[in-house]
Amino acid sequence: MLLAEDDRAIRHALERALTLEGYEVTAVADGIEALAQAHRTPPDVLVLDVMMPGIDGLQVCRVLRAEGDRTPILMLTALVETADRIAGLDAGADDYVVKPFDVEEVFARLRALLRRTSPVPAGGTGAAPAADGGRDAQASDRQVGAAGIRMDLQARRAWRGGRELELTRTEFELLELLVRNAGIVLDHSTIYDRIWGYDFGPGSKNLAVYVGYLRRKLDEPGAPQLIHTVRGVGYVLRED
To answer: How far does CA 149 lie from the centroid of its chain?
Structure first.
């Protein structure tokens, strides 16, 4: 694991906690060191502070993604506005934790990221099974599709109509879950459990941020909206 955090106290405390949790941690103090270390010894997962001198965490994320590096990235940020969180997702991050954070939350999010990148058993797709099979979705070992969405699970590619969607790892898995259950309303707890492996509670806006960002990538002028909010319950994929 590569940890990049410019605050010395936070960096040392998090490094100790992660080491005690069983992670092999390389800790650096800025984005320049983070990029150099990532190129030298590619890690299994990166934990990047957003606000660092020189090259910040968002820039590190953008550079790695531009190079085709798909290593899971967890962002640490003191910025709590939705727009700031979206900026991290836009840069290619897979998840984020807002400071001040509980270290157990960091552990939970890292476990979820690493679980999604672990080897898939033969014949599997790496995705959680559908809630009840997905009445409107057509699925195979390799592809799923519904409501004009087509997904190649092995290649990790997705299209709406003829337009390919540029999705982060988490966005891809969220869309896959919705497609597999097209027409079925999935509640917040179910989605958190399937995508993150942990329900962060009613106060978390993590899911709303990802759904909003996924909508931005899916929606087209003049075309029907596909992801619908069922207030107080959750989300459903369907064409009106």
So the answer is: 19
